[in-house]
Please model this.
Amino acid sequence: MPRASRKLLRIHKDDNVLIVVNQVEPGDRDLVDDQDIVVTQRIEVGHKVAARLIRQGEKVYKCGVPIGSAKENIPAGAHVHLHNLRSDYIETYTLDKDRTYVK
Amino acid sequence: MSNNLPTLTGYVRSDGRKGIRNYVVVAYLVECAHHVAREIAESFKGQPVHLIGFGGCYPNAYADRMMNRLCTHPNVGAALLLSLGCESFNRHKLEENVAASGRPVHTIVIQQTGGTRKSITAGAEWVRQALGEIEGVPRAPLQVEELVVGTVCGGSDATSGVSANPAVGRAFDLLVAQGAAAIFEETGEMIGLGGIMAARAVTPELGQELKQSVDKAAYYYRQMGHASFAPGNAEGGLTTIEEKSIGAYCKSGDSPITGLIKPGDLPRKGGLYLLDVVPDGEPRFGFPNINDNAEIAELIACGSHLILFTTGRGSVVGSAISPVIKICANPETYERMRDDMDVNAGRILRLEASVDDVGREIYNKVLEVASGDPSCSESLGHQEFVLTYKSFEPIGPHCLPV
Model:
């Protein structure tokens, strides 16, 4: 695959998530380490995609370091973010669609 | 090293340090004197006059130490202090310390001077004279090893940890290799990394101190009920504080960690230092730092001549006293906000440059700005400054091993 069309990037060999480097749409695919990943929704640059099935309670690895635990089973190609990944240290808060603080 | 890099000249101060700027600071010692101080500083717009201050009326050892360090920072040539007259801040001691450093200093007590108008007139007159006086400060060649450079990230997104932060890490490696002191900070953004960081310490005892500082930060932020994490971080693709931490930590580069310092401690020699910004003891005054500028002020109080500020979402802030160099992590943000950005690290994501290339570019930018070229935030007139209440214990004996 030519470099310019690269959509997903694995930062560390132990990672079970990939980084979106060019915005992806549902059905977009990329070959990462001989593995065909099909993304299931629109995901913006910088966000994470499951590289394989990540089971509920399993640690999520990015840069070879755990960044939290899966709240639910996350299928390969799914967006990994606040809805399915929890901090092992301090809960994340943010503003939801209604501009309300949520954890 | 490339030969066409600028030769540096510094303003020689009595403690042996050298400045890359020669500013008059106008410092208010309580919020009640802020307006008068601002009016004085603003009448010198475009000239080397910067406004700093502490708003609190109650005494605080941390704020006192910060103000003393800032008014005797190597980039400062003279200080005008603005007091209302009844606040707790020890203006006498501050004036004494600045005078002892050989800098012109003057205190205006608004209640004694006859109110707002007379204080502004008197203050502006003094600053005019001081500007003339500090033109005579001796200058001498400045070596890279004499520089102190701090780094901070703000408005981070998921690109920060992939492009700008690792590139600053490379620039830090270059600076440390040249004998400069490099300071990274925000232990609240090293959650989960205490063990990894401890392994880089020059002694096991320092490693233990580093790890404890991260444990302290995790405890403190848990008490606050929030991690050092903003909604923009999540929009930008970061999910947890430990994920944000990995990106933030990359700014430290690969050098061994020489020491752990707290706000106002000066690195004794070159090397890589962690600045522990989280207060000691039970939380008393709220969040460790209420925003990025509070951290920048602390890096400057530790002697930083300039600040490397990485951003993905797009921060525009600068600082009083020390120039802020903006390194933009996200190529889309760079296109949108390029007037505010000194370095486009987003080229790494577009595969147009390597982390090493951008690291070298940042290093060169440090020398250019140190030689007198204004950074973008300086040109745009940014001089943000924030100082609030905190409390610290002195650093332990293992924190500066050599």
About this structure: Chain B touches chain A at residues 157-159, 161-162, 191-193, 196, 218, 221-222, 226-227, 229, 231, 233-243, 246, 312, 330, 332, 349, 351 (CB under 8 Å). The two ends of chain B are 28 Å apart (CA to CA). Residues 99 and 220 of chain B are 38 Å apart (CA to CA). The longest strand of chain B covers residues 76-83.
